[in-house]
Amino acid sequence: MSMKNRRYPFVQLLVVSAMAWMPGLLMAHGKATGIVKERMQLMKTMGKQMRTIGLMAKGKIPFSAETVGNRAEKIRLSSAKIQALFPEGSLHKPTEALPVIWEQWDQFLSLAKQLEQEAETLEKVAVQGDEQTTLAQFTKLGETCSGCHTDFREKDE
Questions:
Q1: DSSP state letter for 81
Q2: Is 145 labelled a binding residue?
């Protein structure tokens, strides 16, 4: 394993986890309707952006500060839409959202805002072109995603 890959074990875990979930998400999206479908599509879009950057972090594709910045911008713009896509009670299947979202609404919104801020920081850091700093910020962004998923999304069995 190269030194680059050892520095970012969380990123590797994030990329592998995202890839493992994709087949199920793709099937689930086909059955979703309305607001649930909209938010699942938004999350899928953000996941694609994260995967691309994750592949760079793992050394699977070449690092491109411009690409990271563009992907981070898409994540930032998407994250700003999260609140509107979670109206209270929107739990019809195949949603993976847990009812605890509305019980802990302020915490949920705080994580959504943190996601937006971490993505914005990643955009700014990427412009500087320093791979190590950029990937360290990507790790922070990934931890924010993970924090929300841990608390507010159904676990796979």
A1: T
A2: yes
The structure tokens 């199920």 sit at: 24
Q: How far apart are CA 78 and CA 75, in angstroms?
A: 5
What dihedral angle (degrees, nearest 10) is formed by the CA atoms of 47, 125, 128, 8? -70
70 close to 56: Cβ distance less than 8 angstroms: no
SS3 98: coil
Query: Other C-beta atoms within 10 Å of 135: how many?
Result: 23
Phi, psi dihedrals of residue 97, rounded to the nearest 5°: -70, 140
- Strand partners of residue 153: 97
pTM of the model: 0.79
Comparing C-alpha atoms, which of 90, 89, 87, 85 is closest to residue 39? 85
Q: Give the residues across from 60 on adjacent strands.
A: none
Model confidence pLDDT, tens digit, residues 52-62: 999 999 999 99
Rounded distance between C-alpha atoms, residue 41 and residue 117, angstroms: 21
Tokens of 75: 């994540």
Mapped onto helix, strand or coil, the DSSP state of residue 76 is helix
Residues 6+ positions from 78 with CB-CB distance below 8 Å: 42, 45, 46, 49
What is the CA angle 45-40-25, rounded to 5?
A: 85
The pLDDT of 110-114, averaged and rounded, is 96
